[in-house]
Here is the input.
Amino acid sequence: MSAPRVDVELLKKYSVPGPRYTSYPSAPVFSQEFRPDDYLAEIRDTNREGEDSPISVYAHLPYCDTLCYFCGCTMKVTNDATQITAYNQYLKKEIAAIAKMVSPSRKVSQLHWGGGTPSYLDAADILDLGGFLKSSFTYADDIEAGVEIDPRGLTKDRMEAFRESGFNRTSMGVQDFDPAVQKAVNRIQSEKITRDAVEWSREMGFTSVNIDLIYGLPNQTLAGFERTVERVIDLSPDRLAVFNYAHVPWLKPHQKVLDEMSLPAAGEKLEIFRMTLEKLAGAGYENVGMDHFAKPDDELALARRNGSLYRNFQGYSTKAGCDLYAFGMSAISFLGGVYHQNKKTVREYFEKIDAGLVPTHAGYRMSRDDVIRRDVIMKIMCDNEVMKGDIEERYGISFDGYFAAALPKLGAFTADGLIELKGDRIVITPEGRLIVRNIAMCFDPYLESLGKDKQVFSKTV
Ligand code: SF4
Here is the structure.
């Protein structure tokens, strides 16, 4: 397996702020005018009698033991275990209120717990919440159930509790094994505890292990990160996610703690990225989509090859088209054509649940234009190819006429060898896949009104 050619100077040109397209439209477009009743109406509409399409379920568990200074998640540090138990009780109330509206013939084909740190829950809390979810929904026999774990503080009884709750996949952050980087970002995590977490996952029958790395962190060097990548390859995870560090202190004020002078310069950061691509390709990993790699026999890699890859708030998935029910503070659901986001602080989330209300923060009902553009952006992000004829047939439009404003923007990508126009196909080349967000941005008319200058988004590379 060969890595795509990486032209560092070219990538620098495309390093601009842009959405990650885990949704389209992206979350900043959602409106706070959206009412809880609109969400409830959509739940009713998508659960008519006899409805049996599969669903996805996500639970957001925001608590962490300590703060990693690079963190971009919606999380909260606590050393008070009673807060975590209390949060679970609120989560269960929200789940109970919504689950009773979901058609019982709909099975959960995808389950995910993210955070924060789900493995910061003790075994009793994991079993309590896991058991409650299991009794509130019907799980499919072939459910894909993933949980984000932190090797720091992980215990075997927590892992066993996850297995007992139906989980069959683990995902863990490593970021970088280099001690100088770990010290700078306040995340000390030895290789030994990471190896234990991987081994426990395998011993206990989790069928897939994912490891996250981040490039662009303070004190990071090409040589240091190369050693990390080699050690991670030695752990042989089934999947890897390699993220570009998003330095957005105006959105995440705790990142101000990081000394900007210690961040690798743009050129070195892209060299680190290039080295990582080459090492992973050399070890047999396939690049399945933006930031994500998998062994060739992994379901994600298979889905990428047979055109069934899908993208949602958890990244890439093989479960296309499922309605997503998301629970917990800040969690975003997606049903039919509606996005719904919960209150973004624990306090506001608790207040709404205490009042017996839907904890709506914002939402969005997609227009027909959004649906068409979402389809095109999904094809770019997942298949790296758009068949104009398919889109024309599905929506009764002339592709070139409908996207008359977008298509001229593709010219620069074509000239740089990042896109090829082949008959009625727009094909993204292996090099173009490295800046796939930029290509998708050509079809996103909201970016102008959101203003790229407002720095709402992290950089694309
Ligand atoms: S453990 Fe994860 S969610 Fe918690 S602070 Fe660190 S990166 Fe953020």
Notes: Residues 1-29+367-451 form a domain with the Arc Repressor Mutant, subunit A fold (CATH 1.10.10.920). Residues 64, 67-68, 71, 73, 75, 115-117, 150, 173 surround iron/sulfur cluster (CB under 6 Å). The first strand starts at residue 55 and ends at 61.
